[in-house]
C-alpha cells in the first residue's frame, strides 16, 4: 500500500495520462440519460471522473488528455470549470478531446484504442516517454508513479493495473492469468472459471482498465491495429491479448500503489456502474469510519469548487426539527423541519417540514416537499418530490412509477414524477 511520499516524480513528469471518458454507462439507467458515466455525481460534490484526474495530478502527472463522446456537455463543462488550473508555461495541460471525426469523416471513436489512435498527433506533441491510459469511471485512490516504476523496471511492453478479487466474483471482469513473476500468460474476458493467482487459490486478478505503455511502442501498435479491419479497436479485446501473446505484459497489483489515508484500512476500488452500486458507495460514505476517506488533504480529490452558502438546519419543535444523523450534507442545503438519516445530500438540496429521508442519495438541487417519506432512494438532479409522496415502503407500488432495482433501491427522476399526474 502507498504511503504519501515521493520517489517517482521523474517518471511522472515524463508521462501523460489519457483518460477514456466517452462511455454511457447504460447500467446506471436514467442517471446517464443526460450525462456520460464519468460525469455522474459522487460523494456530495464531485463527479466520478475527478478520481482518475486527481490521482494523476497527485501522482505528479500534469499532462492529461480526456477523450469524450457520449452526451459530453456536462462533462466538458465540469472540466472547464473545475480543472482549469493547468499552466502551459509550466508544461502543464489538460486537453479535452471530443470525438470529432479528426481522422475519418465516416466514424467517431470506434473503441477505446481508436479513441487514442485518433489523437496520436496530439500525444506526439506532448513529447512524453510514457502513456498512462485510464478509465474515467471508477472510484479509487492510486499513485500511478508506483505503477510507472514497475513498468520501467520490468521492461514490459504493457503494464496492466489489476485488482485482487475473490476468484468466483471475477466472472464479470477481464481476468489475468499470471506466473510467479507477475507476467501475464493468458487473458480471459469474463471467464466462467477464472484462473487463480499463483499461491493464492481463492483470489483472481481482474483488470482495472489501467495500462502503462512506452509512447513509441503504443503508437506503433495503434497504427497497426487501425489498419486491421477485423479489429474492434479496443484495448481489452484486441491490444492487450495481442501483447500477451506476442510481447511482454506485466500485471500490477492495485494493493501495491493504492493510497491509504485517514481511517481507511483496505484498498478501495469501486466500479459504480449500476444503480445499486452507485447508491451503496455513496451511502457507505456516511459510515462512522467509511472505507473511502475523502477528507484527507494528503491526497485530495480535486473538483469544481462551487460557491455556496453553508448548510442550514432550522426549526426546533418536537415534531418539526431540522436534523441530520449519520449523514453528509453539502453546501447550500436547507434542512427545514425535516429528519435526515444515513443519507447523502448534494449541493443545494432543500428538505421541507415533516419530511423524512433514510438512506437517500439526493443529487444537486432536489426539493423534498412536506410530509414526503423516502427510504433507499436515489433522486436524480433537480427532482422536486411532491408533498406527501412515499417511496421505498411498497416495492410493488414504487415499481409502477419508478425504477426499482433487484436489491430494492428506487431511482426517481423528474420525468417519472411528472408522469404521476398523467
From TrEMBL:
GO molecular function: ATP binding; glucose-1-phosphate adenylyltransferase activity
Gene Ontology terms: biological process: glycogen biosynthetic process
Enzyme Commission identifier(s): 2.7.7.27
Keywords: ATP-binding, Carbohydrate metabolism, Glycogen biosynthesis, Glycogen metabolism, Nucleotide-binding, Nucleotidyltransferase, Transferase
Record keyword Nucleotide-binding present: yes
InterPro entries in the record: ADP-Glc_PPase, ADP_Glu_pyroP_CS, GlgC_bac, GlmU/GlgC-like_hexapep, NTP_transferase_dom, Nucleotide-diphossugar_trans, Trimer_LpxA-like_sf
Site description Could play a key role in the communication between the regulatory and the substrate sites, residues in chain: 69, 108
Keyword flag ATP-binding: yes
Entry-linked SUPFAM superfamilies: Nucleotide-diphospho-sugar transferases (SSF53448), Trimeric LpxA-like enzymes (SSF51161)
Location of the Glucose-1-phosphate adenylyltransferase/Bifunctional protein GlmU-like C-terminal hexapeptide domain: 309-412
Binding site for alpha-D-glucose 1-phosphate: 109, 174, 189-190, 207
Pathway(s) served: Glycan biosynthesis; glycogen biosynthesis
Catalysed reactions, as listed in the record: alpha-D-glucose 1-phosphate + ATP + H(+) = ADP-alpha-D-glucose + diphosphate
Record-annotated Nucleotidyl transferase domain positions: 17-286
Family matches, as PROSITE patterns: ADP_GLC_PYROPHOSPH_1, ADP_GLC_PYROPHOSPH_2
Function: Involved in the biosynthesis of ADP-glucose, a building block required for the elongation reactions to produce glycogen. Catalyzes the reaction between ATP and alpha-D-glucose 1-phosphate (G1P) to produce pyrophosphate and ADP-Glc.
HAMAP family: GlgC (MF_00624)
Subunit structure: Homotetramer.
Protein family: Belongs to the bacterial/plant glucose-1-phosphate adenylyltransferase family.
Protein name (database record): Glucose-1-phosphate adenylyltransferase
Highest classification ranks of the organism: Bacteria, Pseudomonadati, Pseudomonadota, Alphaproteobacteria, Rhodospirillales
Amino acid at each position: 500500500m502507498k504511503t504519501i511520499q515521493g520517489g517517482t516524480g521523474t517518471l511522472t513528469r515524463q508521462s501523460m495520462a489519457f483518460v477514456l471518458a466517452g462511455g454511457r454507462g447504460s447500467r446506471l439507467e436514467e442517471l446517464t440519460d443526460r450525462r456520460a458515466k464519468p460525469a455522474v455525481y459522487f460523494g456530495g460534490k464531485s463527479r466520478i471522473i475527478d478520481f482518475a484526474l486527481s490521482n494523476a495530478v497527485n501522482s505528479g502527472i500534469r499532462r492529461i488528455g480526456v477523450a469524450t463522446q457520449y452526451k459530453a456537455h456536462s462533462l466538458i463543462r465540469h472540466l472547464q470549470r473545475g480543472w482549469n488550473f493547468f499552466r502551459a508555461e509550466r508544461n502543464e495541460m489538460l486537453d479535452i478531446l471530443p470525438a470529432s471525426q479528426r481522422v475519418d469523416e465516416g466514424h467517431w471513436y470506434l473503441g477505446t484504442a481508436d479513441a487514442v489512435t485518433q489523437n496520436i498527433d496530439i500525444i506526439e506533441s506532448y513529447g512524453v516517454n510514457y502513456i498512462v491510459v485510464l478509465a474515467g469511471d471508477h472510484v479509487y485512490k492510486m499513485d500511478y508513479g508506483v505503477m510507472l516504476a514497475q513498468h520501467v523496471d520490468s521492461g514490459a511492453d504493457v503494464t496492466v493495473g489489476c485488482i485482487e478479487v475473490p476468484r468466483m466474483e471475477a466472472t464479470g471482469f477481464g481476468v489475468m492469468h499470471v506466473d510467479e513473476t507477475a507476467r501475464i500468460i493468458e487473458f480471459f474476458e469474463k471467464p466462467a472459471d477464472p484462473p487463480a493467482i499463483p499461491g493464492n487459490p481463492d483470489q483472481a486478478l481482474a483488470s482495472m482498465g489501467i495500462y502503462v505503455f512506452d509512447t513509441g511502442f503504443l503508437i506503433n501498435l495503434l497504427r497497426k491495429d487501425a489498419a486491421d479491419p477485423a479489429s474492434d479497436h479496443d484495448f481489452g479485446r484486441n491490444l492487450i491479448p495481442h501483447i500477451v501473446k506476442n510481447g511482454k505484459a506485466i500485471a500490477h497489483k492495485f494493493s501495491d500503489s493504492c493510497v491509504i489515508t485517514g481511517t481507511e484500512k483496505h484498498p478501495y476500488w469501486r466500479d459504480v456502474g449500476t444503480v445499486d452500486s452507485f447508491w451503496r458507495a455513496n451511502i457507505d460514505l456516511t459510515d462512522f469510519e467509511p472505507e473511502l476517506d475523502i477528507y484527507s488533504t494528503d491526497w485530495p480529490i480535486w473538483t469544481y469548487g462551487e460557491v455556496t452558502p453553508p448548510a442550514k438546519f432550522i426549526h426546533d419543535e418536537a415534531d418539526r426539527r431540522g436534523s441530520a444523523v449519520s449523514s453528509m450534507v453539502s453546501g447550500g442545503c436547507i434542512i427545514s423541519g425535516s429528519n435526515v438519516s444515513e443519507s447523502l445530500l448534494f449541493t443545494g438540496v432543500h428538505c421541507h417540514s415533516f419530511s423524512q429521508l433514510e438512506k437517500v442519495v439526493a443529487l444537486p438541487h432536489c426539493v423534498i416537499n412536506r410530509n414526503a417519506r423516502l427510504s433507499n432512494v436515489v433522486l436524480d438532479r433537480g427532482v422536486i418530490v411532491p408533498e406527501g409522496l412515499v417511496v421505498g415502503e411498497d416495492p410493488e407500488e414504487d415499481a409502477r412509477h419508478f425504477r426499482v432495482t433487484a436489491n430494492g433501491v428506487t431511482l426517481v427522476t423528474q420525468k417519472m414524477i411528472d408522469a404521476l399526474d398523467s
